[in-house]
Amino acid sequence: VLTDPVVPCGQILALHLSLPSVFFLRGLPCSFDLQATQCPDPPSYVPRTFTDNSDRMSFIQRVENLLLKSAESFLCNFAYSPFELLASEVLHRAVTMEELLSHGSIWLKRMDFVFEYPMPVMPNMVFIGGINCGRKK
Length: 137
Hints:
The chain has five helices and four strands; from the N terminus they run βαβααααββ.
C-alpha cells in the first residue's frame, strides 16, 4: 500500500490486510517518522521545524528546542488520538501512532540534506529529494 502517513488510514488498512506499506512523505509532525523508525532525535542537537535554528545552537536555542519538542508531543498526541482509536477498533487491540507507523516497509522521503539538517536515518529510509526540483532555464 502506497500511502502518506500524515493521515494514517492507509497504514491501518495495510495492517488490517497484512500488506506491506510504502510511505511517501516530506516529514511528519512531531517527528513521528523518527520515533517510529527509532532514529536518534535528541532535542538538544536536532533543530525543530519552524524554529529557524541551525545545527549550531546556543544554550537558549537548545532550551527553546526542548520546550518546543515537549509542546509538540502534547499537541500531537491530542491531534492523533482519533486515529489511534480508529486503529484500535479496526485491529482489535490498543495501538499507538508510533506502533502503527513502525510497520512501514519503506519510507520514501521527499527531502534533501542540501536544504535540511543532516540526521541519522534507518536503512529503510530512501531520500528522493530531487523529484520536486524544476529545470534550470
